[in-house]
Design a protein that fits this description.
The chain is built from 20 helices and 18 strands. It is of the alpha/beta class. The chain folds into 2 domains: 199 residues, TIM Barrel, CATH 3.20.20.70; 291 residues, UDP-N-acetylmuramoyl-L-alanine:D-glutamate ligase, CATH 3.40.1190.20. A 9-stranded mixed beta sheet has the order 9-8-10-11-12-15-16-17-18, sandwiched between helices. Strands 4-3-2-1-7-6-5 form a 7-stranded parallel beta sheet. The longest helix has 20 residues. The structure holds the ligand Cc1ncc(COP(=O)(O)OP(=O)(O)O)c(N)n1 and 4-methyl-5-hydroxyethylthiazole phosphate. This is Thiamine phosphate synthase/TenI domain-containing protein.
């Protein structure tokens, strides 16, 4: 078979056509929209009808110079001179469901899925999620076999699908396959063109630094200027920060958000997540006192946030403390893509299954990671988001650069919820990054704006305010420190950030 362009792979499904839409008209319009491969998939027709459909489809595909593949039926593929045949685990004679088997059998491509839930096909196996796709892609390293993800892919989750379906060796998909998103559309040309545009835009930006941040290299001066700009935007625009957080810190996190200049909404109920997703500038998800009802809200809120390209700041508080937290965090991260993951050393160690750092409940014990710079950078690459490691020194990485931040005060460790307030501050800065002029909404990143700068900004705002609070005469200890910290967040000036930031950038 000649080399396939798998970018936008249409698998047909005539049962999904809108009422009165002719199949061949729909197919031709989808070809005009930019479909690059077509697979005829007919499960309930006899051989004669299958042959007729395949033959006319082949003529249309030839007109647009697009290869035609036939699902299951080698005889029909041969009869219509199709470019290939698609066979699955249960089909004869070439089983391709197992990737290793596909490699051994010399397949030209593999379809990996179902990546998301779908009603188009009765699935015999659980969905694999984007992380599962990433793991399978790694098996294709060193081969020339192409790969497409399939199952539940829509324009609303396409960027999430492409962004997340990458192996830790940086093996990305060659394309995506869809049935309903095109076949069920009354406007297949526009549906296909919209998908194609997103795919090609993503391709042009698919390097780890481009995917996460706007620059591949940062200087300390650039970062501080950027942080000051973002803080000004928080104050000018007062973005709405939706926070699903733990009930120990709700009031102080809301107050910290207001003090910084943003506007908090603390809401956990699943029923209101769709409405809130339309008006929020960013979403904070903190699992500190996780209960099943809040978990359902988190699942939905994150899914809507991804669809609206709204940044998600994820705080997996105490993730190592219980199996419930571990499995919930795994499911949440398999369902939506965070823009920032923030945690202390024990939480981030638990997230990767490392026992390098011990924990006690939600606290980290001992001296932390031996090489925190490499740890945050590698985790950012693996999770394909910005990672913030909090502690005496804070580390922020986008997978390329690492910011080492040495501001703060010991009193932050003597009050509950200082890490949670850091999450609120980061979420406020993230909302500003999206709102910032110059943040190109068409850029094929998961969210527009510079999330790396935003995460640094949130940490600097809290830690510098803590230093200012600790210096005050009226602060006698942790009890008076907390209200002073809220005061100082509201008083924090651009000059204070410039004067006090202790920041070093380590690149690659
Ligand atoms: C591109 C692509 N990927 C996967 C499938 C599913 O194939 P299979 O497991 O053989 O299932 P059926 O399509 O035969 O139900 C596909 N068709 N296309
Ligand atoms: C054929 C197939 N194989 C795995 S999922 C699937 C159906 C995908 O359809 P949709 O794009 O409508 O979810």
């Amino acid at each position: 078979m000649t080399e396939l362009d798998c970018s936008l792979y249409l698998v047909t499904g005539r049962a999904l056509l809108p009422p009165d839409k002719d199949y061949f008209e729909s197919l031709e319009q989808s070809l005009q929209g930019g479909v690059t491969v077509v697979q005829i998939r007919e499960k309930d027709v006899d051989t004669a009808e299958f042959y007729d459909i395949a033959l006319r489809s082949k003529q249309l595909c030839d007109k647009y110079k697009v290869p035609l593949i036939v699902n299951d039926r080698v005889d029909i593929a041969l009869a219509v001179q199709a470019s290939g045949v698609h066979v699955g685990q249960t089909d004869m004679p070439v089983p391709i469901a197992q990737i290793e088997q596909a490699i051994q059998d010399g397949a030209d491509y593999v379809g990996i899925g179902a990546v998301w839930a779908t009603t188009t096909k009765n699935l015999s196996k659980p969905i694999v999620g984007v992380r599962g796709v990433g793991e399978m892609l790694q098996k294709l390293d060193g081969t020339s076999i192409k790969s497409v993800a399939i199952g539940g892919i829509k324009s609303s989750n396409l960027l999430r699908t492409l962004h997340g379906s990458v192996s830790s060796t940086n093996h990305a998909l060659d394309g995506i396959a869809v049935v309903s998103e095109i076949m069920a559309s009354p406007h297949p040309r526009e549906a296909a063109a919209g998908l194609y545009e997103l795919i090609s835009a993503f391709r042009h930006s698919n390097s780890i630094s481009n995917a996460l941040s706007v620059r591949s290299r940062y200087s300390a001066e650039f970062v501080i200027d950027g942080v000051v700009d973002l803080m000004n935007i928080v104050r000018e625009r007062s973005p709405l920060i939706h926070q699903i957080t733990n009930n120990v810190v709700i009031a102080q996190s809301a107050n910290a958000t207001i003090a910084l200049g943003a506007s908090p909404i603390m809401a956990t109920t699943a029923q209101e997540m769709e409405d809130l997703s339309k008006i929020s500038g960013s979403l904070l998800i903190n699992i500190g006192t996780l209960v099943t009802s809040a978990y359902e809200g988190m699942m939905l809120a994150g899914t809507f946030a991804n669809a609206h390209r709204t940044p998600i700041v994820f705080d997996p508080v105490g993730v190592g403390a219980s199996e419930f937290r571990r499995s919930s965090v795994k499911n949440l991260l398999n369902t939506w893509q965070a823009s920032v993951i923030k945690g202390n050393a024990a939480e981030l160690a638990a997230l990767v299954g490392s026992n390098e750092v011990e924990s006690k409940g939600v606290d980290s014990l001992g001296s932390g990671f031996k090489d925190p710079v490499s740890f945050v950078r590698d985790l950012a690459r693996k999770e394909r988001c910005v990672v913030v490691l909090t502690g005496k020194t804070d580390y922020v990485s986008d997978g390329a650069s690492v910011a080492v931040l040495s501001n703060g005060h010991g009193l932050l460790g003597n009050i509950t919820g200082s890490g949670c307030m850091a999450g609120s501050c980061i979420a406020s800065f993230c909302a500003a990054a999206v709102a910032q002029e110059g943040a190109d909404p068409k850029e094929p990143k998961l969210v527009p704006g510079d999330v790396f700068l935003a995460a640094i900004g949130g940490i600097l705002a809290l830690t510098i305010s803590a230093e200012m609070a600790a210096m005050r005469d009226d602060v006698k200890g942790p009890g008076t420190f907390l209200p002073a910290l809220i005061d100082e967040l509201s008083l924090l000036s651009a000059q204070c950030i410039r004067d006090r930031s202790r920041l070093q950038i380590v690149s690659r």
